[in-house]
Amino acid sequence: MRPSSILLSSSTTLRHLPGSRPFELLSNMGDTSEDQKKGGRHRPVLGLSSADNQLSGVSARSKKIKKQKTDKQKEMKAIQDQQRKVSDSSNISLIEEWENANVELLTSGIPNVYVDGACKNNKLFKNARKNGSRVSRADRLKVKASYGVYWGEKHPLNLSRRLPYMKQTNNRAELAAAIEAIKQGLANQFPALIIFTDSNYVVSMFNEWLQKWKDRNWLRVTGERIVNLDLVKELDQLKSNPNINVQITHVPGHIGVPGNQKADQLAKEAISKNLVHEHPEAWPKDA
């Protein structure tokens, strides 16, 4: 009797046949198939209990692997939580250190404002400068820059804005944020203003480089033209304005200083805002 015609009965067993389905039915545990009677090799018979044991073994191994994976995930999470606690503790110390160093500015009564810039795909410009090449028009349009100006919780002067109609880079966004804060101070007739930024570029420019560049007719020591000259000149004009005394001070970025965090958030929120670009060739030549 061929395996395909065998009926299930109380004497039926399971046999694994090569080239067939995983288990074939045989009419009697002691019998052999017609193929075997014709000289074929004796094939081992696999009973139901053996099959169940194999399936149980697979299930047990699967559960063991799953448990090991879960244990590993728990272990990694515990390590990450510990690292986060250490980082948070370290950040708290850094924040306290910064606040203590700037306590006079923070409690002077002079308006304080935090500014920050953000830029998506800024690496396209960085790579071009590194390679001494120009950024293509197509790549320029992929770069999006924005800035945030934070005066306080729910303050009416808070700003979250895309960098308009000009080359989009992180440094330009940082500059634009500081410029906007000074303009707001002038518009509101503040006699003095303290700006906190995490951009060393802006801090160094405002406090050290501006006068040196101006003395050299806006050229570097190497004779090269100053980058972002349009915004640099605008910042210089605002610094020279007699109606407001501006101080720009560095704040450590991304360690949890509340004002810096809020300015960063405002800057990043503006990245997604749509902006109709002018043709890249129409951007300022000094940009």
Automatic annotation (TrEMBL):
Reaction it catalyzes: Endonucleolytic cleavage to 5'-phosphomonoester
Top-level taxon of origin: Eukaryota
Biased composition (Polar residues): 50-59
Gene3D superfamilies: Ribonuclease H-like superfamily/Ribonuclease H
InterPro entries the record matches: RNase_H (IPR050092), RNaseH-like_sf (IPR012337), RNaseH_domain (IPR002156), RNaseH_sf (IPR036397)
Biological process terms in GO annotation: DNA replication, removal of RNA primer
Domain RNase H type-1 per the UniProt entry, residue ranges: 107-272
Keyword Nucleotide-binding assigned: no
Region named Disordered: 18-86
Record carries keyword Transmembrane helix: no
Keyword vocabulary terms for this entry: Endonuclease, Hydrolase, Metal-binding, Nuclease
Positions with biased composition (Basic and acidic residues): 68-86
GO MF term list: metal ion binding; nucleic acid binding; RNA-DNA hybrid ribonuclease activity
Entry EC number(s): 3.1.26.4
UniProt family annotation: Belongs to the RNase H family.
Protein name (database record): ribonuclease H
